[in-house]
Each structure stands twice: as C-alpha cells, then as structure tokens.
UniProtKB/TrEMBL annotation, chain A:
Keywords: Metal-binding, Zinc, Zinc-finger. The keyword Metal-binding applies. The keyword Metal-binding applies. SMART domains: VPS9 (SM00167), ZnF_A20 (SM00259). GO terms for cellular component: cytosol; endocytic vesicle. It comes from the Eukaryota. Residues 78-101 have a biased composition (Basic and acidic residues). One of its GO terms (biological process) is vesicle-mediated transport. InterPro entries: DUF5601 (IPR041545), VPS9 (IPR003123), Vps9-like (IPR045046), VPS9_dom_sf (IPR037191), Znf_A20 (IPR002653). This is Rab5 GDP/GTP exchange factor. Residues 240-383 form the VPS9 domain. It comes from Drosophila madeirensis (Fruit fly).
UniProtKB/TrEMBL annotation, chain B:
Residues 201-224 are annotated as: Disordered. The keyword GTP-binding applies. It comes from Drosophila madeirensis. This is Ras-related protein Rab-21. One of its GO terms (biological process) is protein transport. SMART domains: RAB (SM00175), RAN (SM00176), RAS (SM00173), RHO (SM00174). It is found in: Endomembrane system. Residues 211-224 have a biased composition (Polar residues).
Amino acid sequence: MSTAARPPALRLGQQDLKCRASCGYYGTPQNDGLCSKCFRDRNDKQRKMLKAGDMQPILSGSSSHSHSHASVSAGGSSDRRSPQHFQVRETPKKQVDKEPDTSTLQKKKFTAVLQKTLQAGAQKIAQQRGYVPDPTESQFVKQLQKLRIPDDGKRKLKSEIQRLDSEIRKYINSNSSKNIDELSDAVQNTYTKVADIVHNDPRFEIATNEDRESAIDFFEKVVMTQNHKFLFSPYFTTDEESDMKVQKRIRQLSWITSKHLDCSIDEVNAEARDLVYSAISELVGIDSYYSPQEKLQCTVRCCRHIFELLKRATGGPASADDFLPALIFVVLKANPVRLHSNINFVTRFTNASRVMSGEGGYYFTNLCSAIAFIENLNGESLGISKEEFGALMSGQQPFSSPWESALMACESLHLISENMKQMERLQKKNGDISSGIAAFEKELIEFQREVTERVDTVMAKAPLTLLPIKTPAFLIGQARAQLLQELHEGEAGHYQANVLSGAHSLTVHTGMVKASIPAEESGLALKDTSISSIGRLSPLPNLQQPDNLFASPIFNYAAFDAVSLLEEPSSGGSGDVLMLGAELQGGLTNINYDFDLSDQSGENSTAEEAKLNLDEFDPLAQSSAPAPAVEPETSLLDTTMDSLIDSDVPGSCVSLPSPLKPEVANYRGFSNFEIPSISCNTGDFSSLGHDTGPTEGHK
Amino acid sequence: MSSRRSRSGPTLNFKAVLLGEGCVGKTSLVLRYMEDKFNPQHLSTLQASFVTKKVTLPDERRAQLNIWDTAGQERFHALGPIYYRGSDGALLVYDITDHDSFQKVKSWVRELKQMRGTEISLIIVGNKTDLEEQRAIGYADAFHYAQTVGALYLEASAKENEGVAEIFELLTHLMLERLSQRERETEPASPLRLQALDADDAVSVSDGEQSDGTGTGQRSCCGI
C-alpha cells in the first residue's frame, strides 16, 4: 500500500547533468543547465540581441532552447530548480520569475508574447503533475476577505505578505552564496514582526484574539504556499541527499516487525492493520501539502490514528513509551518520500512556536525522533545481535521466520474467506433486489392495465353527455335587470371583457372536463364543471370543441338572449343578492347534472339517473352523446396516468368541499354524489353567476 | 480574556518534558493528574503522552503550558535532545525502589544542564512512595542531590494520588517565575508589576489555572 501511494522515484539521468548546449561538459542548475562557458556565451548573445531590439530572431532562434532563453531574457534569473524537478518545474517557474523583471518596453513586449505560450504550457504541466494544484492568488484573496479583521489590517497583512514574498524571491534569485539558515532566520523574524503588528497595531484593534491568530496563520500559509517551490528542499542544501539516504535505509529495514520495536501493534489483526494503513497514508500525504501548517495537521492525523490503534491494543490511553515505537514502525512501513525535506521545511519555515507547543508540535517532535532513531538504528536498539542485524540488513537472512510467514499467510487466507463470504452475502442481496424489481415492475404493469380497463369500462358504461342548461326564470330576471342597469350606465365594455375571459377559460377547460371526468378526478372535474358551466351561460362563437358546443344548449336557448331578457320583466329581478344566492343553489342543482356522473361499478342508481337526465332534457344532447365518449379515447391512457398522479396530491382538491375527498381516494368516482354535495360547488357559481349572467349583453 | 488588554499579544508558550526510565510511572503521574484535573470523559479520548493547559496570568496575558511525555526505554535515550530542545522545564521521574532509575535521572540532569544550562527548571520526582518498605533511595540522598544540581525534589505516589497535583503546580509556578525573571532582565522599566507577580502568583496562578482548566476543559487535544 505504501509503495502504491508513493510517486515514482526521482532519478537523474546522465543527460540531465550534461550541459544543455551539448558541448560535452557538465552543466549546473544555476546556469540553467548549461556549462559555465556556454552560459556566458549565451548571455552575451542574448544581451546584444535585446539591445538591438530585435525580438523576432530571439523567438525563432530560441526554438531549440526556448526555455533557457526565456529565463535569461527575463532578467537572467538563475534557476533554482533542484535537479530532480528539472523537467517538471521548468516552465511554470520561469513564468513566475519573469513578472517582476519586465522593466523595459521591449522586454514587456517579448514576455507578453512568450507568456501566452508559457501559460498554456504551464497549464498542461500542472495537469500532468496531478497533485495539489497551486492555490491561486485569487483563492488567497478570497480567504483574506473572509478573515475577520478590519480592512486596514487586511491591507497591512497583504502588504506584509508581498514584502516577505519579494524578500524571499530576492534572496533566492541573488547570486551570492546562500545559506538556508539565514533565510530561515529572516522568515522567522518576519513572523515575529507580523505577530507583533497583528497584536499591537491599532489597525487590528477590534479583532479578537482568535481572529488575530488566524490572521497570523494565514500570513504564514500564504507566504509558504507561494514560495514552497523555492523553500522546499532548495538546491543549496543537502536535503535531497538525506532524503535518498533515509529512503534507502528504510528500504533496507523492511524486515523490522513490531516485535523488534517492542510495540503493541498486532500485525495480524485486520482492524489494527487498517489503522496502520490510515496512519501510513496520512504520513505519506505530508509531502503533498504545501504549507507547514498543513503538513503538521497531516502529522497530527497520522498520530491520532496511531493513538487510536494503541488505545485498542492496550485498553487505555497510550503513553509515550508505547507511542514512539509505534510511530517508528509506521514510518518504517510508510517510507514517505522526501522525508527530510519535509521535516526541514517545517522546522525552518513554520512559526517556531508551532513546533514547540501544542499537539502538532509534540507529534512533529516525535516524528523527528522517530527519524533520528531510524537513522541511528543498530542491532542493539532492536534487541538483536550485531551479526543478525548485519545479515538482515544485507538481505542474507530472510525477513521473517517460517512460523511468522505461515501466520501471515493464514491471516491472509482468513481474510480472503471473509471477503468471499461477504461477496456471497452481497450477491444474494443483489439477487433479492433484482427479483423485487421485476416483481414490482410486473405489478406496475398489471396496475396500469387494470386501471385502463376499469376506465374503459366506465367510459363505455357512462359516456359523457352534455345536456342543455335549464336556466331558472329568476336568473333570467336578474340578468335582465343587470343588463338594463348596464345599458343605462353604458358600461358594456366591462361585461364584454368578462365574456371574453369566460370564453377563453371555456376553450381551455372544456377539453379537460371531458377527459377528467372519465378519469374520475373529482377535484378538477368539479372545478371545471363550474367554470365551463359559467362559460356555457354565454354564447361563445370561438369555441374549439364543436362537440361540446353542439351539446351545449346555448345556441338554442333563448332565455339568455339579451333582447328576450329585456322583453320579459321578471318577478325575481328585484331580489337582493343574498336571496338570489340561496335560490340559486336550489336552482343550479338542476343545471349541473348535465354532466353524467355515473358509477364505474354501476351498482347504484346513477346510471339510471343519467338516463333520467337524458330523458328530462333536450333530445339534442342525446345525439351528441357518443361524440365525447369516442373523442377522449386516444388520450385516455395519458389521462389515467395524470389522474393517478394527481389523485395522490391532496392539494388538487383543496378548494373543494371536504365531503368529496373520500370519493377520490377510493376511486369511487362520482357514484356517491348526492345532489346537495354538488350544490356546494354551485356556491362558487352563484357568486360568479351574478356577474356572468348578464354578459349576454354584449351580443 | 479581553482582546483589548492583550497588549503583549500572542499566547506565551511553556514547554516541559517528562523524563524517566520506562516503568517508573511517568505516564501514571500524567494520567493521575489529568484524571483529577479533568473530566474523566476527556481522559478516555486519546492519549496520556502530553498535557496542555491554559493559564491566565495576573496581568491577563494568556499562557499555555505543554508537558511532553517522552519514551523512557533505554534505546530511545539518545533521542532526548530532540524533545528537550527549547523546553523551559523538566520533570525527572524515578522509582524510589529502583536504584538504576535514579542513576538514569542523574544522566539526564547532566544532559539537560549541558544543553539548556540554567534556562531550564528541574524538578526531580521520586515516585511510588506507596512502596515505602522497598525504598532503595533515601529521601535525604535524593534531596541533597537535587540541591547540588539546583533542582527541586518532590516525592509522590501516582497510585495513591499523593503529591501528584503538587508536582504539576510547582512546575507551572517555576516556569512562570522564570518568565518573570526573564522579563525583569529585559524590561527593567516595570519592576512594580513584576514584583506583584512574584509576590502572589504562587496562589493566584494556580487559581487561575483551576478555573480555566476545569471550567472549560481546555486540554487541547483538538487543535493547537
């Protein structure tokens, strides 16, 4: 596992060491991979070209050495890349370097051209690298904005960040001999200074202590993340050699078991092993973070896993006596990459107090001890003889005894069988689920079929018939009174508008009425009934459904004719509105049963009722009856689906009187309707009818 | 802790290491101390290898005390310097029934003196006073030795919970005293304040720590 998580080993090829101008001499990273002679030659050439102001030749001439020319032209910045990142880091770094160096106009122009290509290259390389991408400045700006410190403080913090940033870059780019300790001291001093500013500067006056601390943390994080590439394992230190050395050593020590270290890790316990693996992956992950804080947090997580492990093994809080051997064991098994570089980076460039206190500091110190122990390990410290140690280190003696190997093998077999069992269980569950799905699907199809069937039977048994409306005499009287009044007041426009809107709603809803009644969707249907019956009161020449129109009594009904209204003085015309409402209820019960609300089961009398309706009213309706029954058949399936869905939604019936609801739930249709229940709906109508009644006026 | 008053800003950090041979009861001392000081459910969380407690100084500055346990096995002896680098105090624990452990303490004292000079406060602790009848190191011997190296000497029993809290309170006190000494050297301008701190901080500090540590359970096992 540890090996799988590790990035490929970093190796230097011979060609990387040679001068890039292929003159046969060795080059150095400081001279951009060239030998000293080629470097000087090229610099001279470069300068001349720049002086001449001729940009193009450089661009074209640099095709073979475009990278190296670029960095030189950008101010001769010495390249600080460490050899193993020779290829990988080249392009992005140059891009960064260049920005502060564009002093002359020509250079600016040149870099602008170059930057575009470099940026594209950098993006590509960033993708190739595939680990944590550089947090961009914009991200930091966002974080800065989130800090709960005064804006002045933020500005100050930002300027301090920029200052330290440029200081570090200046130091790294300078040609003088470099000492990492100097740089470390400089950074530490800046930390102290910033801490002082944050705590004592009036600009931070109102911030709480926690916010101040987070501001300081932020400062460190930004500077370190941005300068990670310069400060992490710089070429002028021996970090890298130490990395290689310790890595090799750990590899040699791969035979060490927890017994050698006398620690209470049970290697054959699956649970313990999982925890060891979590600890290992955290430890390996240290390298993938940029800022010291994150590296420390990673260490803390690793150590917490170890403590958890020890707690389970020993049954109580673990002490340092148990912890250190366990940590050593984990480090040995993890063999993290660039261990020394990481440790040194944190030691040098994190806030000194961070490694001296707190959980992170303690664990980090322990990690340092563990590494020190590994480096100075000998037979004595493992409790074995010098000879045995030597034999094990050189690989002459096998790693473990046959008994241990057998134990490990048994454990593995056990694990395999456990996993097999688990797989079986999962397979069985899977089978259950798929058979359940099949059954459910079948059920659904069956259900749909059944519903369709039932709807069909209902449709066949009770075709939709629209019967003529019988308008009570008093209504006519009222309408006429209204009309008269309106005529006097000259407000025809108002009613005209009403009629138009009524017409619109009718065209929209008549179709629905037909469809939804077969679907037994009482809520909608009833609502629509009221609307369409309102509409039906007015003559509507633009109706789209001829069947409906035909069924509707409007055309042959003379009672609503404006003229006839005017002609016939009504006795009920003088009645007040409230009285009318009461009367309307009784009257409208007669109107509304022009919709055939028959029962699907046909067991009670609604079918006869429908018959009765047919007999009672205009014979014209009878002839038109088959039409609506046939027409919706195409949309029948859809309608049933809709109604299935809708019937689940109680909200669709909200506006209805409650007695209707149970009917919906049982799919009982309108079979149990009694006339009074419909009259409830007409309450709606009566209020509307008051306005709509006289709309004939516009005709 | 008012933010206005935090003139001197960042939290002061004190670090003390806990040294002693394996099996002398270093961890038991820590555990006993934490058990008494803190909620038992805090104790069961993770570990007993380091203690952090926050203290508010009389002048309202905040200080954090870190006590780090070290592995006592002989094979890890060489790693000592990594731990006591930059520490302000050390607790050297030995087992009064075990002569070797006392010799071990002596070697540590030498190392510490070499490395930290007088910058470090030393407390030598003879543990396991409950095993009085098996005592191998007399109180007087140990006390005299401590005096010669400029250390304080205490005896305790982690098992019987005798003198445990005193050790840690004394350590706290010593480190704070050292701080004020240091400040007196660097800041001679304000002797008044420091004198006040000297005079009554033996009591007031432990008070502050009590209310702070127990009240809010500030053993920081979660975060720095």
